[in-house]
């Protein structure tokens, strides 16, 4: 008799519909590649009456989670509901009943991954979450399997499409933040409340997941230094171009001897770096391994079918493990316990834009403060004064962040310094 694995789908929104479509439209290829027939048996929805824009038999739909978690025929539960509550309870219940789980939920994995992996391990089932980071880009499987023979040294990249779209538009048109935000909202790239994207919280969840996998040491979400793009102006964009950089919101993770750097913030990146040319809503993740060297993974980081593509690949992996009787074969890989470094301990170059009084000796007094804090200046641009105010743009050599922050505290006290307009880290230079 032909073997069939039954699936319970939690959620039938954008990604849920994409998952169902791919399973149906690519049914024959999926069966041949997975070595087993995959069938959706039940789909959890909030309302049975809602118009869904896709043809699905009515008896597939349910509003009762027990119809899925208590069904012994359902071996794989696919979670695309999003959010934490009640989703976390649903997923834990499925795992505790021995069902493998595939999820696209970055919030849940970033905040409750340890608890979820423990449940999966205790019940010998898979917990797979490729779609939780960078949509259709196969980065988690790559780090866990394809690059498993490497010691990963760095992972950094563009992992939020909304902010990348906005910064691309600002760079191309010299527009201000507020104008491009309205455009992104009008096109559906940004939510009505864009806080999670523009303040960097979405990217922080993703880099916490990537860092945990890359360095085999759990990184908690609250350990990720997070800074958004709301302070980026057209002036910063223009100076970046003048200095040979583009500005990107990057998630950055580095494995150092002392501990792990993990942070999200706007970043100056050289125009000749592969990440610098990634535009619009695309994502890209740059990985450096001690054996493979530099690699980059590029593609659509969100959307119905790109995200569903990653979900279906995980479903197929879970199905193969069930057929071979090895569910949970690749579980949690956090076997190290390295500390996460505070932002003051990180090392970078810095772009610093100051508004100062236009009078003699100002630059010398600022340079003296930096020198006293062991911050070496690489370049200085002084723009023509407007009225009694001038603008200074400084770029430092590589230095520990705490030195820069200490210097800026003293610089704020100088009567000739009117404003520290912006401070942006510089990465990606050889």
Automatic annotation (TrEMBL):
<protein>
    <recommendedName>
        <fullName>Homoserine dehydrogenase</fullName>
        <ecNumber>1.1.1.3</ecNumber>
    </recommendedName>
</protein>
<dbReference type="InterPro" id="IPR002912">
    <property type="entry name" value="ACT_dom"/>
</dbReference>
<dbReference type="GO" id="GO:0004412">
    <property type="term" value="F:homoserine dehydrogenase activity"/>
</dbReference>
<keyword id="KW-0479">Metal-binding</keyword>
<dbReference type="Pfam" id="PF01842">
    <property type="entry name" value="ACT"/>
</dbReference>
<feature type="binding site">
    <location>
        <position position="106"/>
    </location>
    <ligand>
        <name>NADPH</name>
    </ligand>
</feature>
<keyword id="KW-0521">NADP</keyword>
<dbReference type="InterPro" id="IPR045865">
    <property type="entry name" value="ACT-like_dom_sf"/>
</dbReference>
<dbReference type="GO" id="GO:0009086">
    <property type="term" value="P:methionine biosynthetic process"/>
</dbReference>
<dbReference type="Pfam" id="PF00742">
    <property type="entry name" value="Homoserine_dh"/>
</dbReference>
<keyword id="KW-0520">NAD</keyword>
<comment type="pathway">
    <text>Amino-acid biosynthesis; L-methionine biosynthesis via de novo pathway; L-homoserine from L-aspartate: step 3/3.</text>
</comment>
<feature type="domain" description="ACT">
    <location>
        <begin position="351"/>
        <end position="425"/>
    </location>
</feature>
<keyword id="KW-0028">Amino-acid biosynthesis</keyword>
<feature type="binding site">
    <location>
        <position position="191"/>
    </location>
    <ligand>
        <name>L-homoserine</name>
    </ligand>
</feature>
<dbReference type="GO" id="GO:0009088">
    <property type="term" value="P:threonine biosynthetic process"/>
</dbReference>
<keyword id="KW-0486">Methionine biosynthesis</keyword>
<comment type="similarity">
    <text>Belongs to the homoserine dehydrogenase family.</text>
</comment>
<dbReference type="GO" id="GO:0046872">
    <property type="term" value="F:metal ion binding"/>
</dbReference>
<keyword id="KW-0560">Oxidoreductase</keyword>
<dbReference type="InterPro" id="IPR001342">
    <property type="entry name" value="HDH_cat"/>
</dbReference>
<comment type="pathway">
    <text>Amino-acid biosynthesis; L-threonine biosynthesis; L-threonine from L-aspartate: step 3/5.</text>
</comment>
<feature type="active site" description="Proton donor">
    <location>
        <position position="206"/>
    </location>
</feature>
<keyword id="KW-0791">Threonine biosynthesis</keyword>
<dbReference type="InterPro" id="IPR036291">
    <property type="entry name" value="NAD(P)-bd_dom_sf"/>
</dbReference>
<dbReference type="InterPro" id="IPR019811">
    <property type="entry name" value="HDH_CS"/>
</dbReference>
<dbReference type="Pfam" id="PF03447">
    <property type="entry name" value="NAD_binding_3"/>
</dbReference>
<keyword id="KW-0915">Sodium</keyword>
<dbReference type="InterPro" id="IPR005106">
    <property type="entry name" value="Asp/hSer_DH_NAD-bd"/>
</dbReference>
<dbReference type="InterPro" id="IPR016204">
    <property type="entry name" value="HDH"/>
</dbReference>
<dbReference type="GO" id="GO:0050661">
    <property type="term" value="F:NADP binding"/>
</dbReference>
């Amino acid at each position: 008799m032909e073997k069939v694995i039954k699936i319970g789908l939690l959620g039938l929104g954008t990604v849920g519909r994409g998952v169902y479509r791919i399973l149906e439209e690519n049914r024959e290829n999926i069966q041949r590649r997975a070595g087993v027939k995959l069938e959706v048996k039940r789909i959890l929805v909030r309302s049975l009456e809602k118009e869904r824009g896709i043809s699905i038999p009515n008896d597939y739909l349910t509003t009762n989670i027990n119809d899925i978690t208590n069904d012994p025929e359902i071996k794989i539960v696919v979670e695309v509901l999003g959010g934490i509550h009640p989703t976390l309870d649903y997923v834990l219940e499925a795992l505790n009943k021995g069902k493998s789980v595939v999820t696209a939920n970055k919030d849940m994995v970033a905040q409750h991954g340890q608890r979820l992996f423990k449940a999966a391990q205790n019940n010998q089932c898979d917990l797979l979450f490729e779609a939780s980071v960078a949509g259709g880009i196969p980065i988690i499987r790559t780090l866990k399997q394809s690059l498993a023979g490497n010691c990963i040294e760095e992972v950094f990249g563009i992992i939020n499409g909304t902010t990348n779209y906005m910064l691309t538009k600002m760079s191309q048109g010299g527009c201000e933040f507020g104008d491009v935000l309205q455009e992104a909202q009008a096109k559906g790239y940004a939510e009505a409340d864009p806080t999670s994207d523009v303040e960097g919280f979405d990217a922080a969840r993703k880099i916490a997941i990537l860092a945990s996998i890359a360095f085999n040491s759990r990184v908690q979400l609250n350990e990720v230094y997070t800074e958004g793009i709301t302070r980026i102006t057209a002036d910063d964009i223009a100076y970046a171009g003048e200095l040979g950089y583009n500005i990107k919101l990057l998630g950055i993770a580095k494995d150092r001897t002392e501990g792990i750097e993990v942070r999200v913030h706007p970043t100056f990146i050289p125009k000749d770096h592969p990440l610098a040319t990634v535009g619009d809503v695309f994502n890209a993740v740059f990985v450096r391994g001690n054996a493979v060297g530099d690699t980059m993974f590029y593609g659509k980081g969100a959307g119905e079918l790109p995200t569903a593509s990653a979900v279906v690949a995980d479903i197929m992996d879970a199905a193969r493990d069930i057929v071979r009787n090895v569910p949970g074969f690749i579980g949690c890989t956090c076997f190290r316990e390295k500390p996460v470094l505070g932002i003051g301990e990180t090392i970078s170059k810095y772009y610093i834009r100051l508004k100062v009084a236009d009078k003699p000796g100002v630059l010398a007094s600022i340079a003296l403060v930096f020198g006293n804090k062991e911050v070496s200046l690489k370049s200085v641009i002084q723009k023509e004064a407007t009225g009694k105010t001038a603008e200074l743009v400084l770029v430092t050599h590589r230095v520990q962040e705490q030195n820069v922050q200490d210097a800026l505290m003293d610089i704020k006290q100088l009567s000739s310094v009117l404003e520290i307009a912006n401070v942006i880290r510089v990465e990606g230079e050889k």
